[in-house]
């Protein structure tokens, strides 16, 4: 992921910079923030990082995304300035993509037939209609690949990255929306990962895992765009109902 130098969460630095701009009057209440493209150039970060920052600002009640218009300032200060938003879904998924690609490559050289049998079973469970069963199988599939490396630190890291998605309020906000969209590609993508492991191909396993998690990032971008569309549509419907009542 592109980003500025220094520690700390990138999206949080952007949030604080924009909050300061709003407080200093650079952006007044009702004003539109710069376009996503301009913000990526200003802060030298990726689109997902800017999107993460906008979601965080929305959760703080400071901005609102409007379809076809951009992001607008709602308040001059946060109603919940001390709220810990923690790590976002984009950050977590990008970190997983970097780590789990290499984990899959190592696993391809170490995995046993018994572990492959377990992965086949988990892949079948991912196709269940029960969302909780499918999501748990997805989690265990990734952790099982880490277990195939035989490295306790790697196993712990992959497990922590996965569970971090549900400990972070910001990540939960996006992932809750993501769960409402179709996941028709999930089986095929995990199937490619499994096939690469069965072939004991580190290169194919790495690429299949990285491609899968890159697709997850694209999916999260689609989710946040869809959410803005749905809000705009709801607002339009509400205005139409109000006009209908007035015309009676």
TrEMBL record:
<dbReference type="InterPro" id="IPR000524">
    <property type="entry name" value="Tscrpt_reg_HTH_GntR"/>
</dbReference>
<keyword id="KW-0805">Transcription regulation</keyword>
<dbReference type="InterPro" id="IPR011711">
    <property type="entry name" value="GntR_C"/>
</dbReference>
<keyword id="KW-0804">Transcription</keyword>
<dbReference type="InterPro" id="IPR036390">
    <property type="entry name" value="WH_DNA-bd_sf"/>
</dbReference>
<dbReference type="Pfam" id="PF00392">
    <property type="entry name" value="GntR"/>
</dbReference>
<dbReference type="InterPro" id="IPR036388">
    <property type="entry name" value="WH-like_DNA-bd_sf"/>
</dbReference>
<dbReference type="InterPro" id="IPR008920">
    <property type="entry name" value="TF_FadR/GntR_C"/>
</dbReference>
<keyword id="KW-0238">DNA-binding</keyword>
<feature type="domain" description="HTH gntR-type">
    <location>
        <begin position="8"/>
        <end position="76"/>
    </location>
</feature>
<protein>
    <submittedName>
        <fullName>FadR family transcriptional regulator</fullName>
    </submittedName>
</protein>
<dbReference type="Pfam" id="PF07729">
    <property type="entry name" value="FCD"/>
</dbReference>
């Amino acid at each position: 992921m592109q980003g500025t130098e220094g520690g700390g969460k990138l999206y949080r630095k952007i949030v604080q910079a924009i909050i300061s701009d709003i407080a200093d009057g650079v952006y007044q209440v009702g004003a539109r923030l710069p376009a996503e493209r301009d913000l990526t150039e200003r802060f030298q970060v990726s689109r997902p990082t800017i999107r993460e920052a906008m979601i965080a600002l929305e959760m703080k009640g400071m901005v609102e995304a409007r379809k076809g218009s951009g992001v607008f300032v709602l308040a001059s200060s946060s109603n919940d300035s001390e709220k810990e938003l923690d790590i976002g879904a984009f950050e977590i998924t990008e970190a997983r993509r970097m780590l789990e690609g290499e984990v899959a490559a190592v696993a391809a050289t170490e995995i046993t037939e018994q572990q492959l049998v377990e992965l086949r079973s988990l892949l079948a469970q991912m196709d269940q209609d029960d969302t909780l069963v499918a999501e748990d199988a997805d989690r265990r599939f990734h952790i099982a690949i880490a277990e195939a490396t035989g490295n306790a630190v790697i196993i712990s890291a992959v497990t922590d990255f996965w569970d971090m998605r549900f400990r972070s309020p910001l990540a939960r906000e996006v992932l809750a929306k993501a769960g409402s969209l179709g996941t028709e590609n999930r089986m095929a993508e995990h199937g490619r990962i499994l096939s690469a492991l069965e072939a004991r191909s580190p290169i194919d396993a790495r690429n299949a895992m990285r491609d899968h998690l890159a697709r997850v990032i694209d999916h999260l971008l689609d989710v946040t765009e869809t959410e803005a569309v749905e809000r705009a549509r709801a607002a339009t419907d509400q205005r139409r109902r109000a006009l209908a009542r007035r015309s009676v």
